[in-house]
Amino acid sequence: MPSNKPRSSWIDRVQALLRDHGEPLVLVLVVAVLLRLFVWTSYYVGSHAMEPTLLKGDFILGFTSSFGFRLPGSSHFLTQGQLPRRGELVVLQCPHSDDLCLKRVVGLPGDRIELVKQRLMINNVLCNYEKATGSQKNSVLEEKCPEFHHQIDMSKDWDPISTQVVVLKPDQIYLLNDARGDVSDSRTWGPVSKNNLRAKPLVVWMSLAWNSSDSGFQFRWDRLFQSWN
Asked: What is the arithmetic mean of pLDDT over 160-189?
């Protein structure tokens, strides 16, 4: 015997919404997926390697088409975009890992890169270093190179064993952390293929400071919408 129980009102509303607006909703969903795959990406900064520029807990919005269009999951570009500029931040596939990394490009194809007493030299021109204004840490310096300048953290020394001269091949770039005591960059990896490039970071869209004592967090509102490139 069929039930005369009235149908739930929220089910009726959902069905009416899908009936009246189903096609636009599907279109919006498809566009959002395509944008996520080919245009925009989000990256979480999970280490201190890029301080003071980027802080652990920053969420970065990146533009994936800057370096060309690439099939998701593939390391080969369907179309070639422009190379990053010296001094730009990039998101890339970490060498020998499935993880993504965020580093600063300091060398492009054909460049001669050398680290002299922990100072960067590009094409035989030594970058200048001075105390950063506005920083409370004595270890934060302004690194001023011919085509770019930014702040770096020299609070930790690194092993000078990785200061040999490197001349980059036509498909290679050289990457450094802003926190120079962290050598998880080209000092350890060597030059990296430009095919590893994934996105150009644009802006901080959220930033969280985690409290180790109570596992809570605080929003860093002053970090929102900061950009660098």
From this structure: 87
Bridge partners of 59? 44, 206
Place of tokens 């020299």: 154
Which of these CATH numbers, 2.10.109.10, 2.60.120.280, 1.10.10.10, 2.60.40.10, describes 39-223?
A: 2.10.109.10
pLDDT computed for residue 138 by the predictor: 82
| 71 has a pLDDT exceeding 70 | no
Tokens of 224: 């929102």
The CA-to-CA distance between both ends of the chain, in Å, stands at 69
CA–CA dist 30, 52 (Å, integer): 38
Domain spans in the chain, listed from the N-terminal domain onward: 8-38, 39-223
pTM for the whole thing? Answer: 0.78
Tell the burial category of 137 from Cβ atoms under 10 Å away from its Cβ (0-12, 13-18, 19+). Answer: middle
Side chain identity at residue 39, one-letter code: V
**Gyration radius of the chain over CA positions:** 23
Neighbours of 65 (CB within 10 A): 14
Give the total residue count for the chain: 229
pLDDT tops 80 at residue 139 = yes
Lowest mean pLDDT among 18-22, 106-110, 192-196: 18-22
Neighbours of 166 (CB within 10 A): 19
Cα gap 79→88, rounded to integer Å:
21
What are the tens digits of pLDDT across the range 95-115? 988 888 999 999 999 999 998
- How crowded is the C-beta side of 34, counted as CA atoms within 13 Å? 6
